[in-house]
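Handout, page 2. Input:
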Amino acid sequence: MAKPDYIICLECESEVDEFTWRDGEIRRAACDVCGNNDPDAFALPEDFEQDFEDDDGDEDEEEYLDDLEEDEDDEE
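Output:
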């Protein structure tokens, strides 16, 4: 696999373009935004997008609706 142009920090979701790539793996990386330097806490852009698409957000939506109902009850 060829070296990607950038990788994604899984801590803050920033793009990181300075990293060490060897044998198809991220060997060394450091996020300038949050300071993350754990190579396992970075993802390739296509892997990150796939993980984001797999997360359907149902829990967040349910939590939002519950909060909305509570706010309406408080107003009454």
